[in-house]
Amino acid sequence: MVSKKEETKVEATKSEGYTIPDTYKDPEVKKVINKKDLHKMVWRSLMLQSSFNYERMQGGGWAYSMTPALKKIHTNKEDLSNSLLDHLQFFNTHPFLVTFIQGVITAMEENKENRSTIRGIKVALMGPFGGIGDALFWLTLLPITAGIGASLSMQGNIAGPILFLALFNAVHFGLLFWLMNYGYNTGTKAIASMKENTKKISRAASIIGLTVVGALVATYVAFKFGVTIHAGKVKVPLQTGVIDKIMPQLLPLLYTFFCYWMLKKGRSPIALIGITIVVGLVGAFFNLLA
Amino acid sequence: MLVQAILVGIWAGIAGIDMFNGLTHVHRPIVTGAVIGLILGDLQTGLIVGGTLELVWAGMVPLAGAQPPNVVIGGVIGSAFAILTGVKPTVAVGIAVPFAVAVQGLITLLFTVFSPVAHTMDKKAEEADTKALDRMAWLEPIILFIGYFIIAFLPVYFGADKAQAFVQWVPQWILNGLQFAGGIMPAVGFAMLLKIMWKIEYAPFFAGGFIMAAYGQLPILAVAIIGASVAAYDFFKTGTPSAPETAAAAPSDSEEEDYSNGI
User: Mind listing the pLDDT tens digit for each residue in A3-32?
Assistant: First the structure.
């Protein structure tokens, strides 16, 4: 059943009919990325959500913003193709912090780290950055700058929108460029000490990654019943009175496992998205959900 | 009115793209109000309405999968009606919100039907055709531009009352249903991640992360730091790189369907 895996054995990850090998046709490491490339990628990162959809979320836009570096690093066509396929997979983070992840991943690609390690680091970084970004930008920067701007606007002062845009984007673009350079340098430095431990780092990244995914399921999936059970004269709200007592966020967990099970059975993500729409519509029609 | 309606439509298109791509936040009502004011020849009212609508939408941000009424259409239609009909900004909000809710429903649909495009992208990636991928990146922004253009153009050109009658003709449960579906939808993405990463030996970490967030209400960052600590402990404890326990748990045959390789 199980056998010892040798370090050199090529692991492959299957994804929707594509097999992505873990190592490269051309494993030679060359330093090809310069500041100009990094800045080009910052501009491209503005398109992070350009191909947004429920199956891959920002995957398409992420691949788009990584493309300049990938093209330069992987001169071997097969390596480039595998790298692109990898980066087109599910990805979701905060668009204002994405350049840090881009920087780190670019450094790893340039160093020809194993694909599984790159994937692990990518997934381990995207969740926390998404959470920080929400708090930092939607709940802090936007209310502050928009509040200042709106108070001027409501007095009929044209400075309102101008000041808002200036303040907001000074932070926005300042962060995007700084994080890209910082991420790339961090990645380059960290990799030197990582090289001999790829397998262990893969494992560490998997541990962080799955811990985060567990938390993401509990935090970002909104699935609640809105029904109240009438038992005689007693009214029990199904969600807060029953389900939350069993386990909070039970429905998101079950639904995620249901999706996982369906995917394992070979159902396509598109079918699952369709099912989810139906669940939403049925829930709304019978007033089941809240 | 035709020229002005076209200009309003174009601005809505630009703002609609900015809401997802660019994020310079020219799509916020505070900016949109001023621009619509300029287009319709009443900058002063535009500024005031924009400021008011901005505060209305201040709390409505895309958090944790929540889908607030669409801020672009809310800002554009709210400002346009306040200026054209002379109603108070707060009344304009009431007119704008049904449109904004309906548009958010449409966007849920767009993000749904756009999933197959990802598979076309896979094919292009397999051929390492980066040019084609670069072109495809503009597909959704263009669709968004056209959609926003039409939705902003029609009510300005034909009048709010007619447009509103149409919006209200869509049954409420459909809009609610799309909103619920949008909230559940991240589960599909997380399941895709699990499919790539899951190994039974990692199940305790998944469970731990879930418990910390569901019962402990810990934010993602806190969970990630705890996860990193556990990973670091594991990293320094497992000894040599080819530690047998890692290898033994890995499936021998990567073609075996019941196992995935983890990451």
Answer: 443 333 344 555 555 778 888 999 999 999
Q: What is the largest CA-CA distance in chain B?
A: 76
Report chain B's mean pLDDT, rounded to a whole number: 82
Q: What is the residue-wise DSSP string for B63-120?
A: -TT--PSPHHHHHHHHHHHHHHH---HHHHHHHHHHHHHHHHHHHHHHHHHTHHHHHH
Please state the rounded mean pLDDT for residues B43-56: 88
Residue B214 with chain A: CB contacts under 8 Å = 218, 247-249, 253
**What are the b/e assignments for A84-96, b being 16+ CB within 10 Å?**
bbbbbbbbbbbbb
Bridge partners, residue A230, by sequence: A235
User: Closest partner residue to A84 among B112, B128, B190, by Cβ?
Assistant: B128
Note whether B72 and B148 are within 8 A (CB).
Answer: yes
For residue range A84-102, list pLDDT tens digits in order.
Answer: 999 999 999 999 999 999 9
Report chain B residues whose CB lies below 8 A from the CB of A46. 21-23
Residue type, B137: A
Q: What is the CA radius of gyration of chain B?
A: 24
Quote ipTM for the complex.
0.76
Percentages of chain B per state (helix, strand, coil), in multiples of 5: 75, 0, 25
User: Which member of B55, B188, B223 has the closest CB to residue A259?
Assistant: B188
Contacts of B125 in chain A (CB under 8 A): 63, 81, 84-85, 88
* 3-class DSSP state of B47: helix
For residues B46 and B58, give the distance between their C-alpha atoms in angstroms, rounded to a whole number: 18
pLDDT at residue B220 tops 80: no
d(CA B68, CA B53): 14
Q: How far apart are CA A256 and CA B187, in angstroms?
A: 5
pLDDT in tens, A230-262: 877 788 888 887 888 888 999 999 999 999 999
- Report chain A's C-alpha Rg in angstroms: 23
CA neighbor of A49 nearest in space, from A39, A64, A38:
A64
The reported pTM is 0.76
Reported residue count of chain B is 263
The residue of chain A nearest to residue B214, with distances taken between CA atoms, is A218
Q: Strand, helix or coil at A25?
A: coil
Mutual orientation of helices A269-285 and B172-184 as an angle, nearest 10°?
140
Kindly determine whether residue B210 and residue A54, on different chains, have CB atoms separated by under 8 Å: no
Going by pLDDT thresholds of 50, 70 and 90, the confidence category of residue B164 is low
Domain layout of chain B by residue ranges: 2-184, 188-249
Classified as helix, coil or strand, A235 is strand
Q: Which two tokens stand for residue A192?
A: 């030197």
